[in-house]
Amino acid sequence: MLFEQVCIIGLGLIGASLAQAIKDRQLATRIVAVDRQPASVQAALDAQVIIAGSAKLADVVVDSDCIIVAVPVKAVTGVFTEIQQAITQGLVAEDCIISDVCSTKQNVVTAAKQVFGHLPSGLVPAHPIAGAEQSGFHSRRADLFVNHSLIICPLKTTRPQAVLQISDLWQAVGATIMKMDVAHHDAVLAYTSHLPHLLAFNLVEQLASHDDNMDIFRYAAGGFRDFTRIAASDPVMWHDIFIANKPALLNALDEYSEYLAKLRYLIKQEDSTQLLGLLGRAQSARKHFGHMLTSTPYTKQLTETSHTENSMAHSTHVSSTYIITPSRTINGTIEVPGDKSISHRSIMFGSLAEGITKVSGFLEGEDALATLQAFRDMGVTIEGPENGEVVIHGVGINGLKPSRTPLYMGNSGTTMRLLSGILAAQKFDSVLTGDASLSKRPMERVAKPLREMGATLQTTGERGTAPISITGSDKRGSQLHGITYEMPVASAQVKSCLLLAGLWATGKTTVIQPEVSRDHTERMLSAFGYEVQIEGNRISVEGGGKLTACDIAVPADISSAAFFMVAASIAQNSEITITKVGMNPTRTGIIDILQLMNADISLSNETFVGGEPVADITIRSAPLTGIHIPEHLVPLAIDEFPVLFVAASCAIGQTVLSGAKELRVKESDRIAVMADGLTQLGVNCTVTEDGIIIEGKGLAEQDDNATSALPAVFGGGEIYSHHDHRIAMSFAVASLRASDTITINGVETVNTSFPGFSELANKIGMTIATRTV
Predict the structure, then answer these.
(1) Alpha helices in 173-210 (DSSP H)
(2) Three-state DSSP class for residue 625
(3) Where are the strands (E) in 587-701, listed by range?
(4) What stretches of 75-159 show up as alpha helix (H) in DSSP?
(5) Which of 589, 523, 525 is nearest to 558 (CA)?
């Protein structure tokens, strides 16, 4: 029990739903209520929601330690007057907790000062972001507040214990607590709730005033129905809200009028590019913020709600799990998604180019979509993606505009690091954020050399992680200058970040890498007409050039193909062909390493697409052998090592990896996480400072063509992927040599790089069931 007696004033939808929720969850010893409608009070008594009710507060309020005001905003002053009288008469304590559910807060504070002469220490202004078109006691729902926000606006005069108790009450009925000051609350709600309702009422009034209103309403499409649905709400309530929040609502209405005038101008001028950009940004922003707020992948559908005062979407996809029944053989010809690295860069370079860039084969995964959204937020018109097709209307090297909000990178380290280089050179300030996983990854590795170029960047905390705050050149008073930077570790992301910053820097920017790393940035710069100087491991660009739009064909991602390459190698009597895979020589380390392990791999249909070599890859079952992995191949297969660990587990003898510290700062510490999972599944391995030693369980005498099944390498078990997409897919591949079911938790992030992975795996003979909770 949180309270001895709660008094609810107002038995409309919110008040009645809260009363029912308190009763059902036994949060108060007694519940009493006040309502001007005798029928509502009687209904509450008949339903045994309350033990006492009346039209007068003094009749029921005695000994209440919590009073919740759930009346229209214009009635608050009168209710506070009754509460003050009850305090004066000694019916309730002077420090009794008083809270409310009003949609505006300044009027509540003003009314309290007017009535009480001061702000009571127990006054806790609050607002549940929940509701429905239906009103009244009989529309109550005990679950109305579950997974909805409750905004508390604590005052300087409010005692902390009162805030804590109201927070506990709302959390107990399912709400999520947010806090903001009174003025900010009213301004935010003016935009998100009050303005939409006002516009809905106005549009219905406008159309109803037409002479042909019958035909207008008869043939109204779904858009009219959905947009005006909230105009069915209580007009008296909304009249009161509009008046109570007049200053903030007028500001929102004035700003809306400016946007409406801009939209009218674009239509009048038939400015297709700008109009398309506006509409595209609006569409993507709605999806983008919906996914951000609900922590769902872009590739999952958001479930729309029917409540009038709710977030724009809520999620039924919180966490996903693979449940994999072992299978032994896979066969087929498949096509994996487009290359993630090239997809990222196609959006970046296309946006910065002059002209229109058309992209085909674009990876519609989480990470690439985060990049696309970031450039939309900076004013770039981008059509699509639709079936892998994207059209980018470039704004030129100096055409980016500041985002109104922090740029959200999701789980994409590539986006954050490369975009840091671009934004470090801009005139405007920027803030880059990411999800919980990305916010743990080191960003000083790009921030430090960018500072040497004259940039002003601030990372977060002692470990130098996201969010990253970047000060524009307009404030710092100088542009970037070129440097020669010798990279301590080969990293395509760090190299690309500095080369991109060098496009705006004075003089030459040179990056010296200790080993060759993937060169997509260099290739794409050349494709867009920007000169790149390459001398061995020295890559240089001169600042001050321009990019010219071109068409990009994105090949299939070899990192995604790697899972099926290993799968076919370790499975029995299996053959898989993967078509149109990118064969960039800085990415084929996976093939080189597997061939050193005796894998049966052949290439066919070799050609070039958009400056990148591509080929079909055919892989057949083979008895793999353990090797010492050459360190010069490590940067060329850095993303593929999790699944290579699975291959090593199935190999004959020991596999040793060294020189791979980079794996410890990926989406997870991939060495430690893979070692934990392999150990749990029965494979002996030893973690070293910069690698791992895996004791393969393959048998020298095994005959891959025999009719008897290959021996199991892995046992069954439950694996936690640490929300790392490559960890999840790697252990899915391990099921081909498992003795029992493997369960992998936290697989929703697979969509960051490989949407449709489980469906494709099942198509060729694996058995992956997905459970979402």
Answers:
(1) 182-189, 195-208
(2) strand
(3) 600-609, 612-620, 654-657, 685-688, 691-695
(4) 76-88, 106-116
(5) 589
| CA gap 410, 431 in Å, rounded | 13
Which tokens sit at 196?
A: 């939409």
* 8 Å CB contact between 294 and 302: yes
Greater confidence (327 vs 315) lies with 327
Long-range contacts of 596-601 (CB under 8 A, 24+ apart): 596/627, 596/629, 596/630, 597/624, 597/625, 597/626, 597/627, 597/647, 597/648, 597/651, 597/655, 598/622, 598/623, 598/624, 598/625, 599/565, 599/569, 599/624, 599/647, 600/569, 601/565
Q: What pLDDT does residue 304 have?
A: 42
E strand map for 291-361 = 320-325, 331-334, 356-360
Question: Could you read off the pLDDT of 335-344 as tens digits, one per residue?
Answer: 998 999 999 9
Beta strand extents in 263-330 (DSSP E only): 320-325
The C-alpha angle with vertex 253 and arms to 247 and 259, in degrees rounded to 5, equals 145
Three-state secondary-structure class, residue 582:
strand
Task: Say if strands 123-124 and 97-100 run parallel, antiparallel, or are unpaired.
Answer: parallel
Do 368 and 392 contact (CB within 8 A), yes or no? no
Helices then strands, each counted (H, E), the chain: 25, 32
List 338's β-bridge partners, or say none: 556
Using alpha carbons, select from 616, 625, 628, 631 the residue that is nearest to residue 564. 616
Residue 430 backbone dihedrals phi, psi, to 5 degrees: -145, 155
Decide: 562 and 640 in contact? Cβ < 8 Å.
Answer: yes
Assess whether pLDDT exceeds 60 at residue 745. Answer: yes
482 versus 773: which is more confidently predicted?
Answer: 482
DSSP 8-state class, residue 633: G
What is the largest distance, in Å, between two alpha-carbon atoms of the chain?
A: 94
The span from the CA of 263 to the CA of 664, in Å, is 49
Q: Which residues pair with 744 in a beta bridge?
A: 322, 719
Q: CB neighbours of 128 closer than 8 A, spacing ≥ 6? A: 14, 18, 101, 145, 148, 149, 150, 151, 170, 175, 309
CB 362 within 8 A of CB 383: no
262's tokens? 């801009």
Domains of the chain and CATH, by start? 3-180 (3.40.50.720), 188-270 (1.10.3660.10), 340-553 (3.65.10.10), 558-772 (3.65.10.10)
Question: What are 255-287's pLDDT values in tens digits?
Answer: 999 989 989 998 898 888 788 877 877 776 666
Amino acid at 13: L
Neighbours of 164 (CB within 10 A): 11
Task: Report, as residue numbers or ranges, the catalytic residues.
Answer: 639
Q: How many residues does the chain have?
A: 773
Q: Is 530 within 8 Å of 547 (Cβ atoms)?
A: yes
Q: Is the dihedral of CA 694, 698, 700, 704 positive or negative?
A: negative
CA gap 565, 575 in Å, rounded: 9
Question: pLDDT of 452-482, one tens digit each?
Answer: 999 999 999 888 999 999 999 988 888 999 9
Query: How many angstroms separate the CA atoms of 660 and 635, rounded?
Result: 8
How far apart CA 333 and CA 576 sit, in angstroms, is 6
Distance CA 230, CA 217 (A): 16
- Per the CB < 8 A criterion, the answer to whether 363 and 558 are in contact is no
The count of other CB atoms within 10 Å of the CB of residue 216 is 14
Paired tokens of 631: 């360190």
Percent pLDDT > 90 in the chain is 62
d(CA 442, CA 665) in angstroms, rounded, equals: 7
